[in-house]
Amino acid sequence: MNKSILLGLPRRLERRLFNRAAVALQSNPPSVLERAQARIRHLDAATNSPSPQLKDTFNRQHNYLRISLTERCNLRCFYCMPEEGIELSPDGKLLTNQEILRLATLFVKSGVTKIRLTGGEPTIRKGILDIVGDLNGLRQYGLQSIGMTSNGLSLHRRLPQLVESGLTHLNLSLDTLDPFKFELITRRRGHEAVLKTLDVALKLPLASIKVNVVVIKNLNDHEVLDFVEMTKNMPISVRFIEFMPFTGNKWDKKKMVESSDLLERIRSRHPNVQRAPDELNDTARSWTVPGHTGSFGFISSMSDHFCATCNRLRLTADGQIKVCLFDAKEISLRDKIREGMTDEELLRTIGLAVNGKKEKHAGMEDIDVVTNRPMILIGGIRTKSNTFSTHSLSTDLHRRPSPFYLPHTQGRLHYRLYSTSRLTHLDEHGRASMVDVSDKAPSRRSATASGIIQIPKLAYELITSSYPVEEAPIIDRQVLDDTQSKALAKARKKGDALTIAQLAGIMGAKQTSNLIPLCHPLPLTKVDVLLQPEATSLSPRVYSIRCTATTTCEGKTGVEMEALTAVSVSLLTVWDMLKAVAGKDMEIGSITVTRKSGGKSGDFDRMPSSDALR
């Protein structure tokens, strides 16, 4: 019988066929019969009968292994990554592909039937297709499913290949259906890409597609009904996860919404929801709405734990085995492998870790005071030699700054997440909204803003030679090279730079409501723009042009934005006028409101301070 025909068949059927082949081959040469019998013995040895090393003292047999492939992620979800960032392990400290396969093989032969790949973001790992393909080869030892948990940001391009390589289950992390709020939570753009991944996944032969939603009070809890509505026509399972404490995620019990509360909200819309059968050892309690294609469920780690049926073990990206998500104790299987341990010795080491697993929540009564890795480092150790912080942002974010992106502070980038209840331009759902000023009485309002643009000496002399300032220097044409002379002539052809910039600032102030989406159009009664060249007296001298703009109106809202727009447009116009001679050497900064009067918030004058550019 052709051996290749049997590959890929269920083990029982394969063995039955080999038994029949052995009987049929009684009259054949002994070598053929011996090969058939050897194959039968091999199949018997390959059976992944549960090992006692994977059973803990509470009689829980562990047949589910989660493998973190990387500590890196292309999102920065605040509940997963600390605000100050994380420190990555050097590449040499991470498990190699061969080490991952060796440990996975050992676990599968010991009774693990389900493997899930996590991170960080697992799709960032180089060789992910090879890893999935190699794991797929473990089906001969009893592995039944290969899953992946992903943020879906770039997965849509590779998902078909991953499924072809053996991926069977997919969990997508998607905490909001609002693109604006997605950026608030993840500190990145990409909402549309995640939805595209979901669309691609629905067209592939995956055994299961789940959408994970971490629910946080007053942030996305009002979207629960919208997520349930997704299950009407999509064969997906939406799982609402209670906000859990991890180092650096600023967990607060007040931000947690218990699953029971969410269920009551859903029942108010769908009173006929029904309990759905749960998978064995499943972490989620599942429900369905009659007539809906999909289902929804709750992972209530905080309010209603499922520790009694826990069957999960975790292997971090740097090779540590974790027997509980909340347990800070770890054993390095990576080090044991590199010390030359045999598989039998490794299995005994794993058994020691499993034997130490507590009955629930790592033996702690109050897991909200847990000291553990950040969630993203359930995979990873910290090392000062390879610091990863939010300073290493993608170039895309630098090109398109987020409204939640704040300047450098002591070498790191810091973020602030604003409550939607405090931003007047957001409604109760977190969506953009123009403030209603209908009930306000008009009053006289005024605002002054200022800013500066640093310029090189040549540009300063060009400006001051045609602009009346005290002790204006005269450009010595004999010290200019040909390139500078041509640039100077080109700049002069544009005309009086400061006058044009002044007019541009006035026009910009009048166009503010067309430039800033939620600004009210105001009947400005006066716009005054002044541009003044300046040079410091200290050496080395710093040359700049300061712009000051004052706007006034009789209106129902303030005119600060008009003053700021006037300054910004004026300085940008100066840049445009001088770029022929100073394009690489100019810098705009220190744009701020210096004075304001009128309105409910009262008057203020900003205390003078040194300019940031000086």
Share of helix, binned: 25-40%
Within CATH, the superfamily of the largest domain carries the name Aldolase class I
Identify the CATH class of the largest domain. Answer: Alpha Beta
Provide the low-confidence segments as ranges: 1-8, 367-421, 467-480, 608-614
Question: Strand order across the biggest sheet?
Answer: 8-9-10-7-6-5-4-3-1-11-12-13
Instruction: Supply Rg.
Output: 33 Å
Number of strands: 21
SS element count, helices:
18
Span from first to last CA?
Answer: 85 Å
- The tally of structural domains comes to 3
Oligomerization state? single chain
CATH architecture of the largest domain: Alpha-Beta Barrel
Which word captures the global form?
A: elongated
Can you offer a commentary on this structure?
The chain has 3 domains: 3-46; 52-384, TIM Barrel (Alpha-Beta Barrel), CATH 3.20.20.70; 443-605, Alpha-Beta Plaits, CATH 3.30.70.640. α2 packs antiparallel against α3, α15 runs antiparallel to α18 (560-582) and α16 runs antiparallel to α18 (560-582). The protein has a 12-stranded mixed sheet with strand order 8-9-10-7-6-5-4-3-1-11-12-13. Helices cover 30% and strands 19% of the residues. By secondary structure, the protein is α/β, with parallel strands linked by helices. The protein is built from 18 helices and 21 strands.
